[in-house]
Structure formats: C-alpha cells, structure tokens
C-alpha cells in the first residue's frame, strides 16, 4: 500500500462549483499534513497546512480525520485560476519526512 | 529572499555521461530535499538532509546516484553514469518547519 493515496481525477467542474478532494495515508503515526498545488510544468507550491481542528483560507477548507486516516480539501466558488494538480502531503515521522501523493488534476471550465 | 535556486534549468546529455544538479536552499532553512518527478511515478523523495547531514537516502534509486551537502547553502545531486530512464524533473526543496519550498526544478533528458 502506498504511503499516500489520492484519486488522480481528472475533476472537470464549472466555474462557481464546489469541489472536494480526499487523500488517505497509511501511517497512523503521521504528524503533519499539507496540501500543495502544482501548475503544469511548474514546481509544487505550498497551499495550506492541515490541522486537526480543520482550517480555512478564503475559499479553501482543509480537514483532517485521524481516525479514518484521511485529509480533505474543499474549494468553494471555483475559479478558472484554480485549475491545477493538487498534491496531498504527509509527514510520517515529524522529522520533515514528506511523502507526496500522485496528485488530483482539477480543471475549472468557463 | 530569492527562494530555492536550482541549476541548470534544463540539461540534455548523452547516456553514460555524468550529470551534476545544483541547489541553493533558502537561507536559514535546515532541511534540504531532493525529489524526482515523472509522469509514471509522480513525485519521489530521493534523499533529504538536516543540518547538512543526510538523514534518509532510501529513495536513491541505485549507486549511480549520489548527493552531497558540503555546507548550509549548497547541495549537489550527481548521476554517474546517466541512463535514459533517469530522464525526469529533479526538484530541490528546503524547509525550516511545516512544509517545504521548492525550486523551479531541473528538467533532465538523457538520450
């Protein structure tokens, strides 16, 4: 089983839609969790950290479910500029040992 | 801060040649990571350093790959000899706490 698993998509949604991505991780001792965004032929960029209590940044909401070992990312009111690949990242050891999922491709359609 | 700086941005080399990729982390960051990204395998962690010391190199594919970090502001990833299957984008990233910041990557093509 992979350390981090994501639905690769693609997700094609109209502008203004709400879309959610899930990610599961295998190591129950994992310490920290993040969502990254990667545009085509660019480097991954940190989008947001994921906290146990859940956290929100504008249109983006991230949640962590430790019991079920999954994290989620919700994007409300999708914009064309949200089109990208979203990578789920898990720090398994608390020592910055970052494992990346293979990413979920999102395309927002006008 | 200029962010993580990698060089070269693109490298095309012939099979069997030595390739050296370079990375300058963000000043003050004490973790440095080397990743490789391909369509088939996604983003793979090759090796990472903490305070210039290699912590985990289990992702290094084989003995042809080696990485060094002689000081806090510089790291290299070397492939010798290179093979066509090494073609990929190689990213360097650095971190202090909470996530990592990536360089723009080196796109390596081995022909």
Overview of the molecule:
The complex is a heterodimer of chains A (110) and B (111). Chain A has 110 residues and is mainly beta. Helix content of chain A is 0%, strand content 55%. In chain A, the strands form two sheets. In chain A, strands 2, 4, 5, 9, 10 and 11 form a six-stranded mixed sheet that branches. Chain A has a five-stranded antiparallel sheet with strand order 1-3-8-7-6, with no helix packed on it. Chain A starts with a strand and ends with a strand. Chain B is mainly beta and 111 residues long. In chain B, 0% of the residues lie in helices and 56% in strands. Chain B is built from no helices and eleven strands. In chain B, the strands form two sheets. In chain B, strands 2, 4, 5, 6, 9, 10 and 11 form a seven-stranded mixed sheet that branches. The termini of chain B are far apart. Chains A and B meet through strand 4, strand 5 and strand 10 of A and strand 4, strand 5 and strand 10 of B.
What would the principal axes of the Cα set say about the shape of chain B? globular
| Distance between the first and last residues' Cα of chain B | 36 Å
If helices are DSSP runs of H or I spanning 4 or more residues, what is the number of helices of chain B?
Answer: 0
Largest sheet of chain A: 6 strands, mixed
Helix content of chain B: under 10%
Query: What structural class do helix, strand and pairing data of chain B support?
Result: mainly beta
Q: How many alpha or pi helices of chain A?
A: 0
Write down how many β-strands of chain A occur, each being a DSSP E stretch of 2 or more residues.
11
